[in-house]
Amino acid sequence: MTETPTFELYSFWRTSATYRVRVALALKGLTATEHTVDLIKGEQRDPEFLKINPMGAIPALIEPGHPPMTQSTAILEYLDEIAPSPPLLPADPRGRARVRSIAAMLAGDTHPLITPRVRGYLTKEAGFDDAAWKRWQIQWFTTGLQAVEQRLASEAETGAFCHGDSVGIADICLASIPVVAKIFDIKVEGIPTVDRIMARCEAIEAFAAADPYRQAGAPKP
Ligand SMILES: N[C@@H](CCC(=O)N[C@@H](CS)C(=O)NCC(=O)O)C(=O)O
């Protein structure tokens, strides 16, 4: 990298997807000025924000002179390409496919089901009350994390982290699920490998510093 870009990050204290970007920025020694999009107030649907991300979701990463970049996993890969050290993807194609697959199980197949827009639809259009929403959250947090556990526990590529002994994109996506489940007071049981890797991640300052409760605007845990 010849020059460190100046980043701005549209974010909110408690979001899983923004957590992923915060961790990656920190691992790479990069920084971003954060702008709060209050998801509880619904600011993600403000017309001004929809010009930044028509999906009405964060994160959005801005680099001066370029269109906003959205989708946390695309942002993670971009950061990995512009700041290659430490690498967040394995050197071999099969390893990269495995890491991207685990990341997609979490960032693609698990997290989007428990977002505010899904909650809004289920409560307004499908008759969900708070108890039904809680059961929904537990269902999808559990399905995602137990499926990943099954892979991590049975595949030889798993090491101290999801893939070998260095931290990468799969670990970032993995950690982004329990940190948010905790906010909703949900603990998924029967995932010892996930718990072991999560503990390793939390011991790394880049992960610890990205914890939702350490962000501006967060309540006391
Ligand atoms: N696949 C997207 C998901 C983005 C996303 O859904 N972000 C949540 C916060 S974690 C959000 O902004 N939700 C707004 C809403 O659901 O209304 C990514 O990984 O960046």
Write up what this structure looks like:
This protein is α+β, with helices and mostly antiparallel strands. 49% of the residues lie in helices and 7% in strands. The protein has 10 helices and 4 strands. A 4-stranded mixed beta sheet has the order 2-1-3-4, covered by helices on one side. A hairpin with a 6-residue loop joins β3 and β4 (69-70). The radius of gyration is 17 Å and the shape is globular. The chain starts with 6 loop residues before the first strand and ends in a 12-residue tail after the last helix. The model has no long low-confidence stretch (mean pLDDT 96). Residues 15-17, 39, 44, 56-59, 71-73, 107, 112, 115-117 line the site of glutathione (GSH).
Q: How many distinct helices?
A: 10
Distance between the termini: 38 Å
Fraction of helical residues: 40-55%
Main pleated sheet = 4 strands, mixed
Mean pLDDT over the full residue set = 96
Which sequence of SSEs, written as H and E, runs from N to C?
Answer: EHEHEEHHHHHHHH
CATH architecture of the largest domain: Up-down Bundle
Structural class: alpha+beta
Report low-confidence residues grouped into runs of 5 or more. Answer: none
User: What Rg do the Cα atoms give?
Assistant: 17 Å
Shape field? globular
How many beta-strand runs? 4
List the domain count as a whole number: 2
CATH class call of the largest domain: Mainly Alpha
Strand content: 5-15%
